[in-house]
Write a structure and sequence with these properties.
By secondary structure, the chain is of the alpha+beta class. It contains eight helices and eight strands. The protein has an eight-stranded mixed sheet with strand order 1-2-3-4-5-6-8-7, sandwiched between helices.
Amino acid sequence: MDTRYFLETPRLRLRSLTEGDLDRVVALDNDPGVRRFIDGGRPVSRETVRTGTLPRLLGRGFWAAEERATGAWLGWFCLEPESEQDWRVVELGYRLRRAAWGRGYATEGARALVRAAFTDLGTERVTAQTMTVNTASRRVLEKAGLTYVRTFFEEWPETIEGSEQGDVAYTLALEEWQKQGHQGVSRWKAGGFDARTDWSSLRGRAGR
């Protein structure tokens, strides 16, 4: 596999985001449909993305998604660690351009990241959150093997349509993933791979 990429699937390549992705992220975050379940689709200034959103995406656990066949930039995925010290608990998320919707990319990327978490990063539990009414992202999480845990209500900065139904939490533990029939031994745990140093929404709600 090309060493520029963290992960490859049959149709996707995931790489670290860079400052050169600024315009792409600005365009992504200014599509009202993409941010429908984030803040109702409100516009975001380039400066806000440059000083707020992009620095977070440049951090640990975020990757740009590209289409292998064309190299087209599709959006991003994340396994955001709960701790700065390790990857034992991570939150799965993604945000994809509208052109990538309905093609199975979210599920393909999510499944691949769950596998990478458990086999390469030393992860013990993958979590995710989304709005109760975000049925598309809930299906993605379930197809990736995560299980619904609870519905909860929080005070978000923006009140958007559907927020009165709350948010839902999902989780998947390593043991449950293995019971689902998946194989793979974590190289991180075996001592031959240190994910903490080898690899360097946004409201914590999975999906678009």
